[in-house]
Task: inverse folding
């Protein structure tokens, strides 16, 4: 039989699954490939070798996993944040953000090389960049770790801690500056990095992790960044106590060091009473607000009263803060309709916490008063089983992905804003989501299914008057073997969804 050469006019189907071998009845069969590695397929049909990468700098520790998170204030002020074990480094314009100059006055030709910089202020282990040295140019533009520091000198080692031997270098002549690589200390360990969720507004990024208080990373200048816990106003709180246990404050006025005594442990932390992990937790009762500062025993805590109580009588109608070491902290965060939205604590995995409208850190739901449209909102998704919230993404509605399905949150009417009395949550699909943030692309949401193998496109469908989520990887399910750990969207020059596979491959 004569051989027939098939004409391939385009590659828009990309790499096809081995399960499709011989399926020439499929329309995409003639535009697909058995293997397509290190190529980018353009929407016009052609394919070209993927672009290369640029080495900017080695991460803090190449032995540990590192996560990159963008920080975008504007189109002209963008940063890349390198999250590593207990620290953040900041990159801009193809380089790390550095601290101020320390003038170098000498570098020895020795093993190890010793740098003289008066009152440098460095600590052993700090990473520095040396530039503008005259004579010993071998050190220019390179990174070193500080070792053996004294007030005015420090030794140079490489990233592995090996002494830098400068005996063969050119003799130091003059000049030169040393700059420490700028770092922000964080509580996030390497194992926790990929459970971090974030949402940014202007120069502030809110960060959540279920084991840590919600934090905000603020930028006030190029080298001025601070990470601090969010100081929530009046909430959020759990449901009101329904037991006979009462709370009695030693005094009612605003102040510190006030004892609050419970009549029993029933109703407090599932009947075990006050815990040391309640320190920092809020309490609301008798029209007043307080924050626990110490735990004396299972029935007595010490508080700081921030809003005066109406009196010192025993009160059974009390509420405890929803965010604490005891209950777990929020695991997800986003912005929606001028509200900062948190969700998914350990004790309340299906509950959503909306801030007051236009006041992101104010969680006052006006308990016991007349509810206003701009008050904070607490809403728990009702479903047949407990499904922890995995991601939240704001589009025309608020899309929520849980371990058991996907939901939309809206105001209950066409173009209606969400208020405490006007909120509607509807289940849209039952696929279940992985604990990885979804991506907004155009007017659709791309999310990773619970097993981390399938990428689904959640889009509104007018035929069903709801959202549908077809599988985008159905024709190439083999490329996600091992599961994906991260997703990222590239908009220019070509629209591409990049995924990091469990084995480190970029697909």
Result:
């Amino acid at each position: 039989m004569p051989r027939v050469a098939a004409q391939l006019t385009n590659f828009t189907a990309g790499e096809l699954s081995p399960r499709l071998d011989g399926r020439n009845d499929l329309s995409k069969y003639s535009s697909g490939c058995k293997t397509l590695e290190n190529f980018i397929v353009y929407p016009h049909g052609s394919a070209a070798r993927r672009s290369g990468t640029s080495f900017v700098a080695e991460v803090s520790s190449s032995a540990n996993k590192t996560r990159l998170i963008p920080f975008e204030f504007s189109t002209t002020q963008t940063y890349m944040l390198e999250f590593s074990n207990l620290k953040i480094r900041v990159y801009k314009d193809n380089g790390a953000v550095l601290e101020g100059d320390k003038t170098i006055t000498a570098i020895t030709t020795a093993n190890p090389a010793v740098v003289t910089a008066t009152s440098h202020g460095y600590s052993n282990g700090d990473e520095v960049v040396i530039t503008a040295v005259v004579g010993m140019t071998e050190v220019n533009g390179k990174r070193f770790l500080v070792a053996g520091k004294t007030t005015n000198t420090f030794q140079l080692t490489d990233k592995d801690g090996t002494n830098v031997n400068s005996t063969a270098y050119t003799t130091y002549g003059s000049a030169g500056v040393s700059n420490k690589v700028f770092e922000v200390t964080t509580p996030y360990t390497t194992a926790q990095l990929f459970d971090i969720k974030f949402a940014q507004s202007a120069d502030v990024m809110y960060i959540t992790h279920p084991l840590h208080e919600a934090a905000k990373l603020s930028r006030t200048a190029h080298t001025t960044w601070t990470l601090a816990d969010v100081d929530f106003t009046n909430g959020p709180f759990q449901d009101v106590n329904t037991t006979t246990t009462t709370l009695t404050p030693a005094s009612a006025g605003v102040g510190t060091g006030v004892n609050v005594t419970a009549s029993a442990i029933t109703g407090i932390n599932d009947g075990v009473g006050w815990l040391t992990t309640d320190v920092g937790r809020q309490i609301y009762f008798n029209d007043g607000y307080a924050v626990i500062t110490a735990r004396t025993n299972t029935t007595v805590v010490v508080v700081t009263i921030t809003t005066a109580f109406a009196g010192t009588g025993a009160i059974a109608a009390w509420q405890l803060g929803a965010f604490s070491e005891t209950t777990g902290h929020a695991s997800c965060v986003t912005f929606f309709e001028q509200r900062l939205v948190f969700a998914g604590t350990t004790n309340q995995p299906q509950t959503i916490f909306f801030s007051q409208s236009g006041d992101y850190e104010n969680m006052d739901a006006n308990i016991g008063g007349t509810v206003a449209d701009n008050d904070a909102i607490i809403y728990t998704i009702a479903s047949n089983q407990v499904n922890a919230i995995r991601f939240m993404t704001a589009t025309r509605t608020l899309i929520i992905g849980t371990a058991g399905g996907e939901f939309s949150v809206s105001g209950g009417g066409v173009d209606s804003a969400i208020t405490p009395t006007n909120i509607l949550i509807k289940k849209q699909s039952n696929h279940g989501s992985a604990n990885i943030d979804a991506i907004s692309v155009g007017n659709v949401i791309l999310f990773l299914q619970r097993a981390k193998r399938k990428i689904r496109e959640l889009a509104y469908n007018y035929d069903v008057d709801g959202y549908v989520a077809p599988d985008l990887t159905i024709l190439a399910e083999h490329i996600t073997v091992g599961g994906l750990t991260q997703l990222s969207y590239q908009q220019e020059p070509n629209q591409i969804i990049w995924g990091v596979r469990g084995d480190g491959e970029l697909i």
The longest strand covers residues 212-221. The CA atoms of residues 68 and 82 lie 5 Å apart. The radius of gyration is 28 Å. The chain has no helices and 40 strands.
